[in-house]
Design goal:
The strands form 3 sheets. Strands 5-4-1-6-10-7-11 form a 7-stranded mixed β-sheet, with helices on both faces. It has a two-stranded antiparallel ribbon with strand order 2-3. The radius of gyration is 17 Å and the shape is globular. By secondary structure, it is α/β, with parallel strands linked by helices. The protein contains 7 helices and 11 strands. It has a single domain, classed as Spore Coat Polysaccharide Biosynthesis Protein SpsA, Chain A, CATH 3.90.550. Bound molecules: cytidine-5'-monophosphate. Cytidine-5'-monophosphate (C5P) binds next to β1 and α3.
Length: 227
């Protein structure tokens, strides 16, 4: 089964104050690092980036520089993350029965983990990469603890999140869930009643959201690239 990869990259970077996907390390953008391992997966047939129309030139510049040997297209993103993902799915080749969604701001994803998630999706239909929580989590209200959550049951969701096309299309295009705002595609698929499996990911597969994440990311880049 072949795979369409979707990279939502139409965020405004409001929390960071800048568009994190275009930050550079060693002359390569975070976006380029996030895409590269997918290019080397034989299962992947196409990659679609959902970007704001104002960023098309910057995305194109990244792609030109990277000179990937695989089809990478750009589609206009939407107001919410789900609008961006919807637009990309509409453009994808319907022959690809698996949809793999990966945040553009997770540059430390490995080919072996992507392939593990795709393999699991073929048998289970819906899978996310996640890591067990090492922190104890507290449910709070007004900075007071209401409840301590049993850490042993808690996993932190990452991407890639991989779904059979029929499942993600059902969840994303069903009008019942149109106004359900989510922060990852799995939430929507869960809401639509499907079981979602987990493949254990890597703590290094961080999402660059804040300035502190960028500090951490630079340290990881240095370590990985032997800089
Ligand atoms: O806002 P957050 O950090 O959760 O965004 C996660 C991902 O969703 C980012 O890769 C961002 O570019 C993408 N996004 C999008 N379209 C939007 C909002 C966010 O593609 N309208």
């Amino acid at each position: 089964m072949s795979v369409s990869v979707i990279i939502p990259a139409a965020g405004k970077g409001e929390r960071f104050g800048d568009k994190k996907q275009f930050l550079h390390f060693n002359n390569k953008s975070v976006l380029t690092y996030a895409i590269t391992p997918f290019v080397f997966c034989n299962e992947v047939n196409e990659i679609i980036i959902a970007a704001s129309k104002y960023d098309t030139k910057q995305v194109n510049d990244c792609l030109k520089l990277a000179n990937f040997k695989k089809k990478v297209s750009i589609v206009e993103g939407g107001l919410q993350r789900q609008d961006s993902v919807r637009n990309a799915i509409k453009l994808s080749n319907k022959k690809n029965q698996i949809i793999c969604i990966h945040d553009c701001v997770r540059p430390f994803i490995f080919k072996s983990l992507i392939q593990k998630a795709i393999k699991k999706c073929i048998s289970s239909g819906a899978v996310i990469v996640a890591v067990p929580s090492t922190d104890t989590l507290k449910e709070t209200k007004d900075l007071r603890i209401k409840k301590t959550i049993d850490r042993d049951k808690i996993w932190k969701a990452q991407t890639p999140q991989v779904f059979k096309r029929s499942i993600i299309e059902h969840a994303l295009f069903d009008l019942k869930y149109e106004n359900f705002l989510y922060t990852d595609e799995s939430s929507l698929v869960e809401q639509a009643g499907y079981d979602v499996s987990i493949v254990e990911g890597s703590p290094l597969n961080i999402k660059i959201t804040t300035k502190d994440d960028w500090l951490l990311a630079k340290a990881i880049f240095k370590e990985i690239n032997n800089d």
